[in-house]
Amino acid sequence: MSTESRIPWQVKFIALALIWGSSFLLMKYGLRGLEPVQIAGLRIASGAVILLVLLRVTGGRLPRGGRTWLHLFTAAIFLTSVPFTLFALGETRVSSALAGIGNSITPVSMVIFGLLLLPSEKVTRTKLLAVALGFIGVIVISEPWNTIGRPDPVGFGIVLLAGACYGLGWPYVRRTLAHADLGGLSQPTALLVCGTVQMVVVELVWWLLHRGQMRLPWSVHDSATTHDAWVALGTTLVLGVVGTGLAYMLQFDVVRDAGTVVSSTVTYLIPVVSVLLGVLVLGEHIGLFQLGGFVLVLAAALIVGRPASGWASLLARTRAA
User: Fold this and answer.
1) Mean pLDDT per segment of 10 residues, for the chain of length 321 residues?
2) What angle do the packed helices 23-30 and 96-103 form, to 10 degrees?
3) pTM score, two decimals?
4) Does residue 44 contact residue 197 with C-beta atoms inside 8 Å?
5) How far apart are CA 20 and CA 138, in angstroms?
6) Which of 17, 97, 124, 162 could, after both became Cys, cross-link 86 (CB 3.0–4.6 A)?
């Protein structure tokens, strides 16, 4: 019996854009009863469980070697624990739509960090101009000239930093783990396992510093109603199980069926979905400067991710929010 999926890759591609684009909406719901650190920890742990099961079912195995795991542990800081926490933290101050826009800075930041970590990569003048265009877009979004009605600068800075983490993490993976045999689900599973370990430590430290407000590390907000608590827990579990576990499986299917170039373009649809969901579901407002700046950042990302640049295969792996 054939084990090949009968679902067209185009359907999986659209599903990926919707799943990853909705992650910012789910985090906003999660904040109704959980702290950002709790959301990140539960998301990573539940995603890790799903991928461990999938890895076992598909006959895969985790990487071996202390040096490989050391690099994976380092990469997990920038690809799981830090960005997942920062996105949730940023959404305590800005809208989910704006957080999704912040995620679009990833391809631009990848050029910058690639210059530092991958000196053999050729970055053309066009790509450097795209970086400049991306920064102009960020400035337009933040509206530094407007003292009233502009996005919270700290919150927007946090989500930009979260998006930039991916741009640092994947060049690091390419430089340090290109030699390792990490086929299939092995690498994402290992990254989430490392991220889970990191978040256990972070959550314990966070709880010790907030024992006056939180009885237990997994306690929900005292001010949250029973309904809010269940909504927060449910949406965060969906974020981990579907938005991380299932999404990784779909991503590998799309890469196998359509190639890395096509798969990489999902990066550009994620913020579009997040903006639409934020406006339509949560009633969030996006100003003209935010929309204009978003267009500039998205244009910069599209230029950076052109197939001829050689970055597309790397961009195909740049998600986790």
Assistant:
1) 63 89 95 94 94 89 90 94 96 92 82 78 77 84 76 91 89 82 79 95 91 81 86 94 85 68 69 89 88 86 63 47 50
2) 140
3) 0.85
4) no
5) 22
6) 162
